[in-house]
Amino acid sequence: MLTNKNIRNFAIIAHVDHGKSTLADRFLEIAGILSVGKHESQFLDRNPISRERGITIKLAPVRMNYLLNNKEYILNLIDTPGHVDFSYEVDRTLASVEGVILLVDATQGIQAQTIGNAYKAVEKNLTIIPVINKIDLGSAEVEKTEKQLTDFLGFKSQEIYKVSAKTGEGVQELLSAVIEKTPPPKINNFSNFTSLIFDSYYDQHRGVIAFVRVFGGTVKKGTKLILAQNKTKIEVMEVGIFKPELTEKDELTDGEIGYIVTNLKDIHQVRVGDSLINEKAAEELILQGYKQVKPMVFASIFPTDTNDYLNLKKALEKLYLNDSALQFNTIHSKAFGAGFRVGFLGLLHADVVRERLEREFNLSLILSPPQADYQFKDDKVYEPFVKLFIVVPNSYLGAVMQLCENYRGKFITMDNKNQISITYEMPLAEMISDFLII
């Protein structure tokens, strides 16, 4: 009989293009969910925009059953994006798992999101399994990458796994290590159902479908639940797991990751980071959600056909369900009519949202150039600043410092204990105009 002790919830985190989705493919093949050579590469990247751009833009959960030493395990994997503009997806994922694979490309070494994501995992006290990928390539610098992991992030050499996600070399051993090193979900012994919503989307026939991590109790069809933030009551229409398609199941129990069909038609009632709890659950069982995402750049979006204003509004609301970083307000332009001022996390995020609105909702749009959000108080203008933490090789230190100076950067501090890291303050407008490249 499968229990909490047989469950492993883990994620793959890395810098963009370091091989997360390819590694996920090999795991799915080993678990028998996919047949070798008979599926699209980067299978979990189902969004066509994600495939065309060659980057992951949405977290993707999948459940695998795996036999190790004659013992069956349930492995809940969540593949995550690597680009900084989608780092909030990583935050949502890490709140739902106990362990992570930190993947580093042997041809590129440690990069910005390697460090950023590693720190996020450390903050949440997760088990981290460091892995060097692409060891099959002639340009791979395995020893150099291993030294970076030991020097900068403090791992021991014997803790680091070396794989080729493309060929499958070392992947089976890595999957076994995930089971052995990642702790099972903590048993909370809650008598009432408690879960955290880490993603959601809207189905026109079944309403909002919430992706949840269960932290206590059991839920099944017909169970009455409450959204903790606004006290909205629901009766569960269906529960299930990700195979990776939605697959109905009799119940979800403590430690599992799955989905709940809410039948809610008002998408404003469901917020990522909210707790979905039993009606009898005490207030103290409400789980701590995610930090409110703060937009970094703003742009105005208008429909080319003014009659599409309401369609654009509905599209933004539906997109918000699985992209909680979006913030938008109604505006009016003499030239373009009614539209929305939308906050994004960065330039790539803005471009992807525009493309999703046009392709998924059949809209033709005008997007103004992104800009920072200025404030005017008492005849003074206030502009947003950012604090930049930059890790740079010694050979590029002078050029990078000069770049920061050219963009009104103010030097704060430098640390060259293991690798050189410098900290600057800089106006956000300077960073998003030319300093930051997509």
Task: Furnish the topology, listing elements before pairings.
Blueprint: E1 7-14, H1 20-30, H2 48-53, E2 60-68, E3 71-79, H3 87-94, E4 99-105, H4 112-123, E5 127-133, H5 142-153, E6 161-162, H6 171-181, E7 194-203, E8 207-216, E9 218-220, E10 224-227, E11 232-235, E12 238-242, E13 246-249, E14 251-253, E15 257-261, E16 275-278, E17 297-303, H7 309-321, E18 327-333, E19 337-344, H8 347-360, E20 365-367, E21 375-377, E22 380-382, E23 385-392, H9 397-406, E24 410-415, E25 420-427, H10 428-435
Parallel strand pairs: 1-3, 1-4, 4-5, 5-6
Antiparallel strand pairs: 2-3, 7-8, 7-16, 8-15, 9-14, 10-11, 10-16, 12-13, 12-15, 17-19, 17-20, 18-19, 21-22, 23-25, 24-25
Q: Could you write a compact summary of the structure shown?
A:
The protein is of the alpha+beta class and 438 residues long. It has helices spanning 20-30, 48-53, 87-94, 112-123, 142-153, 171-181, 309-321, 347-360, 397-406, 428-435; strands spanning 7-14, 60-68, 71-79, 99-105, 127-133, 161-162, 194-203, 207-216, 218-220, 224-227, 232-235, 238-242, 246-249, 251-253, 257-261, 275-278, 297-303, 327-333, 337-344, 365-367, 375-377, 380-382, 385-392, 410-415, 420-427. α3 (87-94) packs parallel to α4.
Characterization of this structure:
There is one protein chain. By secondary structure, the protein is of the alpha+beta class. The chain folds into four domains: about 5-180, Rossmann fold, CATH 3.40.50; about 195-285, Translation factors (Elongation Factor Tu (Ef-tu), domain 3, Beta Barrel); about 295-370, Elongation Factor G (Translational Gtpase), domain 3 (Alpha-Beta Plaits), CATH 3.30.70; about 380-435, 2-Layer Sandwich (Alpha-Beta Plaits), CATH 3.30.70.240. Helix content is about 25%, strand content about 35%. The protein has ten helices and 25 strands. The protein has helices at about 20-30, 50-55, 85-95, 110-125, 140-155, 170-180, 310-320, 345-360, 395-405, 430-435; strands at about 5-15, 60-70, 70-80, 100-105, 125-135, 160, 195-205, 205-215, 220, 225, 230-235, 240, 245-250, 250-255, 255-260, 275-280, 295-305, 325-335, 335-345, 365, 375, 380, 385-390, 410-415, 420-425. It has an eight-stranded antiparallel sheet, with helices on one face. β5, α5 (about 140-155) and β6 (about 160) form a beta-alpha-beta unit. α3 (about 85-95) runs parallel beside α4 (about 110-125). It is globular, with a radius of gyration of 23 Å.
